[in-house]
Amino acid sequence: MKAAATFELIVTVLAVFELLLFTGITLPHFKMEHLQENAFPFGWKGVWASIPFAIWFFLGLEGVANVAEETINPQRNVLLGFGSALATLVLLCVLVFISSIGVGGWEAIVYPSPGAPPSDSPLPLALAKIAGPGTLVYHLLITIGLMGLVASFHGIILAASRATYEFGRVGYIPRVFGKIHNRFKTPANALLANMVIGIIALLTGKTDDIITISVFGAITLYIFSMITVMALRKKEPGLTRPFRVPFYPWFPVLALIIAAISLIAMVTLNIKLALIYFSILALSYIWFHFFVKRTPDAEQTNYS
Question: N or C: where does the chain have the smaller number of CB atoms within 10 Å of the terminal CB?
Fold first, then answer.
């Protein structure tokens, strides 16, 4: 955990540095009229369509909770981790939004040229308006920017391996994934399984669809988590809680409302992917109900 956390911290600092450097280069060229030009082209329908992308900005923060067992003083440090991560992302989102659009308007960082299809690389387009695509600064920022992807994927794999390990430990999936490596004392099988799944996902060339499905999974997790928190507070008021959510019940209720609205937006905007996702959920439920729930080991498993 220390090695993984140290590596995550280093690449995250590099990614944050890259975004701050990008902001420092572009802000001197900022013009307010660029923010105001054709600022609301698709009305509230456009806002509704942007919800899945807004979720992806903050996707992965919930991974902090997956390492709560290894956290010293979780009531303080888990909240500090969530709070500092959220504040960092909000600040960087605002800075990057203002500085990138301010150099030439939102259309300049979405369309490489008039009539061209939309680009999924807005920051390089914004930087090219200032430094040019062949300059040293341009290539330096693009290279350092890859650290953001490394940080994101590393954090997700770390959290996913922990979840896979827990599923294997309690027998929800083959128990081989719940084993700890004898020498390294890590959930090696869970890490390898997620690595293979990740490579297969990349090789499909459908990373945009996979990201959307992962957003479906995150929203579902948020909804069930909020419902579970409130149900446990009512049914088990005396349960030992190393971490207690602040401002209960307002924060869970607000999060539940936002997650429900987001899920509705995701379904209406991605009907085909929604059917695939809910089919995966249905198959998972069938697996759990008929192959896991009825086994003696599952009935005797105790976990907290």
Answer: C
pLDDT at 29 (0 to 100): 87
pTM greater than 0.90: no
Residues listed for the chain: 304
Amino acid letter for position 37: E
Q: Measuring CA to CA, which residue among 169, 175, 255 is closest to residue 218?
A: 255
> Rounded mean pLDDT of the chain?
82
Residue keyed to tokens 């069930």: 224
- How many Cα atoms sit within 13 Å of 3 on the Cβ side? 3
Confidence of residue 302 (pLDDT cuts 50, 70, 90): very low
Phi-psi bin for 149: left (phi > 0), alpha (psi -120 to 50), beta? alpha
| Domain spans, the chain | 1-203, 205-294
Dist CA 287 CA 303 (whole Å): 20
